[in-house]
Specification:
With 232 residues, this protein is α/β, with parallel strands linked by helices. It has 9 helices and 11 strands.
């Protein structure tokens, strides 16, 4: 497999055209013609993820969160991102990012979160949210135990129609409420937004950015196929 073939496989599964306008997805570093010796899937591009790739003989890093959000005029190694990118260039490691295209796509991040939490009859809402029916008990404890993460709860406990948005999805609580959800699980929400949501009658569970997204890394790896490692 060449880098461009891995890129095409990801685009077929989670079309890059579904990414938000502000996002930075696709091939961010490296030659599309390189032969892939192995790949590492990680939530973020980091020195540790790169170490994992090099240790396993991989020359492709696939991340959920992209780098290079802001235009760079210099690659002087005076900040963490520049140091990492320059090291990747020296080591001939390519990088592909699948971010909001993966969040929004059918079978993507938010579908994986809904599946992990055991929601049924899941439907798609605006901004990539998913909503489904929950028939279990104590949603807060369920989220805590399933994702193995501390959970901060706001509002009166109730959970028959649960909306989910992995990562920093707190700003979309009104989308969940308008769709008829009585509970909303997300990774991050601002304190006053959470209070407003609770006052409006929504039960909000803040379960951590990484915890609500690490569960989606396996699905990315499955698209590429063999010789894939996942860094958590």
């Amino acid at each position: 497999m060449k880098v461009k073939e891995a890129l095409n496989a990801l685009n077929e599964a989670f079309p890059f055209e579904l990414a938000e306008e502000w996002d930075n997805v696709g091939l961010l570093l490296g030659d599309p013609e390189w032969e892939v010796t192995g790949a590492v899937v990680a939530l973020d591009a980091s020195e540790e993820a790169l170490d994992c790739a090099l240790a396993s003989g991989a020359n492709l890093l696939i991340t959920h969160h992209p780098g290079l959000f802001r235009a760079r005029k210099r690659f002087a190694e005076v900040d963490a991102e520049a140091k990492l990118l320059c090291r990747m260039i020296r080591e001939s490691v390519a990088m592909i990012a699948a971010h909001t295209n993966y969040d929004n796509a059918p079978g993507g991040m938010n579908d994986q979160l809904a599946k992990t939490l055991g929601l049924e009859n899941v439907c798609m809402l605006e901004n990539g949210l998913r909503m489904g029916e929950y028939s279990g008990k104590d949603l807060c404890e369920h989220v805590k135990n399933t994702l193995n993460t501390p959970v901060r709860a706001y509002g009166v406990p109730k959970a028959s129609r649960v909306a989910v948005c992995g990562g920093a999805g707190g700003e979309f609580w009104k989308v969940a409420l308008a769709a008829g959800a009585d509970a909303f699980v997300t990774g991050e929400i601002r304190y006053h937004e959470a209070l407003d949501a609770a006052r409006a009658g929504l039960y909000v569970l803040e379960a951590g950015h990484a915890a609500t997204e690490e569960i989606g890394l396996d699905a990315i790896a499955q698209v590429i196929g063999e010789n894939i490692a996942i860094f958590r």
